[in-house]
């Protein structure tokens, strides 16, 4: 087995109580985790990013970039707990122009707990699909808006460049019917 095949069958990664850890993976390792089903990060107070991004100008307070997110097609559980410096889950890459689209076809569990600086899932205009999501917990994330049933100027925003977005986007944009069923 060569080094490119290392970790190709790895399904679960758990990182717990690594207070001095700044990042978990180097960017050149991403392609090796195509079988990853569960990513669990807990009590990593200094964590700046899970995937180190080389050659891309991103803030150091995100979990992944959009290119990383598109590689996680087998992911079933995303759990991030007690990471005090984390501001966003997916980082916006410098070269992005189009509306980002995130599809997590297998994610059934999403837990975001005790992330006091978390503001949003992704800082730019985006759509996300979570067709199998069954268990969601967002707790002790005071800066984040979880759901919005409408954004009065959402269609206008879609036509603007992401740099000019005038409002803070929620984690999920849902229609009124879905929002009523959540209460």
Structure explained in plain terms:
- The protein has helices at 66-69, 154-159, 176-182; strands at 12-16, 23-25, 38-42, 49-51, 62-65, 77-81, 88-91, 100-103, 109-113, 126-129, 135-139, 147-148, 172-173.
- It has 183 residues and is mainly beta.
- The protein has one domain (3-144).
- The strands form five sheets. It has a five-stranded parallel β-sheet with strand order 1-3-6-9-11, with no helix packed on it.
- The chain is globular, with a radius of gyration of 16 Å.
- The model is unreliable at 53-60, 152-158 and 160-166 (pLDDT under 50).
Question: What structural keywords apply?
Answer:
globular, 13 strands, 5-stranded parallel beta sheet, mainly beta, Plant_NBS-LRR, 183 residues, At4g27190-like_LRR, plant defense, LRR_dom_sf, 3 helices, Disease resistance protein At4g27190-like leucine-rich repeats domain-containing protein
